[in-house]
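Sample entry was shown:

___
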Amino acid sequence: MNEPRHDPALTAAAQADAAATGAGAVPDAHAAAEPMEPDQAQEALAEIQELLRRARLVETVVHNQAMDRHELVENLVYRQNNARLSARLEELHPADIAYILEALPLEDRIAVWDLIKSAERDGEILVEVSDAVRETLIENTDRAALVAAAETLDTDELADIAPDLPAEVIDQVREGLTQEEREQLRAAMSYPDDAVGALMDFAMVTVREDVSLEVVLRYLRIFDELPDHTDQVFVVDRGEVLKGVLPLTRILVSSAETLVGQIMTTEMLTLNPWDRADEAAQAFERYDLVSAPVVDGDGRLVGRVTVNEVVDYIRESQEEKTLSMAGLKEEEDIFAPVAHSVKNRAPWLLLNLCTAAVASWVASRFEATVGQVVMLAFLMSIVAGIGGNSGNQTMTLIIRALALGQITRANVRRLVTREFATAAIIGVAGGLIAGLFALAISGIAALGAVMMAAMILNLLVGTMVGMAVPLLRYRLGRDPAVGSSVLLTFATDTMGFFIFLGLATLVLL
């Protein structure tokens, strides 16, 4: 693992003395690039997209030229383009590369991913990208590279991406772990996603209460850098039972001869690995915490939770709720294959179609009474409802992508094409079912054809409005989410009725 192990079984004095004699040295941290501001990240994305476009253009021109040593020239141009892209990627923080990969179509994403040669950066990027994009990267990476990337991660980070990695990769990585790290990995993977144990990490600093601050300072100077978000060190006894916490600010302002036990804080918020993660997140927000210790039932320190993990959990939970409200089963890569998008979106829409069909079937039992015109009236609600729900799915994904800055001028055309293709496939499938249903309850073939055609057209209308409204509001500097659903419902209901009744007038009358 690339992070130093902080052994709580040793006193601060012992570790400091070990460092003074050359033992317990800490390896240098990887010199990563600085994170970017959001506008800088978008500029980097646009730059990478432009480099990819130029590379394709130059390669196409060279490929079509008739010249001596054509293959040699083509390979030279290819290497030069890759060298430019590699140099630019090397300047970027792994989180910014993850952002760029999420905003690239699949073929460009794989091309950029293949240019990243560092196993450590590969591992950091796999942790940073979304679950859906991580799957595409893992599918296009050989086993040896995956093992090398996974071996650079801490056990808590490895546990985060383990469900997406092939089992043989996890087995091979586990063989290279120490017994303590194996136990940490097993523990981290045993907790459900909504438990504190799934959020905690094991990189922390512990000291004893019977040592002086001078010893603590010597101990802290052993490390090239402290674990991320270290605002306090944890005070434990020889049985690893948590006795208190010592904020770094107290270390800095107190006398060097002061003992840890004299100034440590014993009134502290502690978490249990089985506590609910949302409750822990509320505690972090309520008390403005940066980190909090995690203890087991016997009071032993087993890990800590930091604010960055809490923020990630809150964001992911909110995204999941938003996607669920739109009837999406899982987070979707905006450039995933159309078949994957259909699989993700179609079930809920078809279920909604079935529920709407039940209501229409009940009304159709009164056909002899209400007559043919009323038949059209209750069937048209299916067309409007399905079109609205399809548009809402598209709108939800567009609003999320806009919030994350994934949509740019360079990729919006590809996104529009993909969304219309997805809507067309779902429209044909759903329209066929709706048409057969209309035929079954009416016995009129022409009515079934009208139903199918109206369903396909209104799904395309819903997709168009679901993309156009948030994109236009975003372009005008407005919140793309505010009022979009109202406009979508208005458009799909109005156009659904117009399309269905208009076709019925032309065909049936």
